[in-house]
Write a sequence for this structure.
């Protein structure tokens, strides 16, 4: 998605450890116009998949998932990292390792909100090693739901997550695929691995 790539080039910063800092428009402050365009593209790609629910992970995935869900007219279900008193104990649970926070988190969703008949579109802001994606797919599998697609804001294609899950047969559509970082320079992939 040219609009997202331009925004990354203009406002993104590369930090040590191959971390792309995009918090001024994606995961701290949100560019709402950009997000609605991102949601529209996810809709165009997955509109024929019979999506009944969008699944994401709190916190950074919620706004992007909402933008997509607005176009699909379906609910967003976000896996919580912290179990609250209101959630109860009848939940699906998985575990996700966060590279940027250097720790494991249990993630949970209430069983009454993720159902066997759901056709789930997973949306997340980043895909690198695939840890968050693994946890979200695990939750859907526990519920007997069908994952019909995966929408990613930014994929670090030089890390194994995208390849791993494409090899397993998942349709992943990433709006910006980064081939490499060279100092302060971001190079995007030319090809779409789904074609």
């Amino acid at each position: 998605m040219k609009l997202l790539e331009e925004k990354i080039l203009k406002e993104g910063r590369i930090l040590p450890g191959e971390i792309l800092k995009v918090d001024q428009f994606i995961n701290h402050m949100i560019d709402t116009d950009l997000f609605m365009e991102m949601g529209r593209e996810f809709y165009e790609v997955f509109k024929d998949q019979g999506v009944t629910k969008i699944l994401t992970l709190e916190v950074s995935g919620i706004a992007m998932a909402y933008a997509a869900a607005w176009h699909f007219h379906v609910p967003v279900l976000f896996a919580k990292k912290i179990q609250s008193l209101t959630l109860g104990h009848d939940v699906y649970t998985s575990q996700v390792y966060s590279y940027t926070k250097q720790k494991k988190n249990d993630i949970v969703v209430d069983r009454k909100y993720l159902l066997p008949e759901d056709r789930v579109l997973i949306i997340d802001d980043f895909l690198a090693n695939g840890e968050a994606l693994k946890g979200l797919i695990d939750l859907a599998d526990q519920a007997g739901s069908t994952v019909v697609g995966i929408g990613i804001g930014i994929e670090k294609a030089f890390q194994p997550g995208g390849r791993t899950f494409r090899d397993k047969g998942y349709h992943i559509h990433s709006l910006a695929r980064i081939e490499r970082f060279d100092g302060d320079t971001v190079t995007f992939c030319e090809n779409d691995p789904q074609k």
Summary: The chain has a mean pLDDT of 93. The chain has six helices and ten strands.
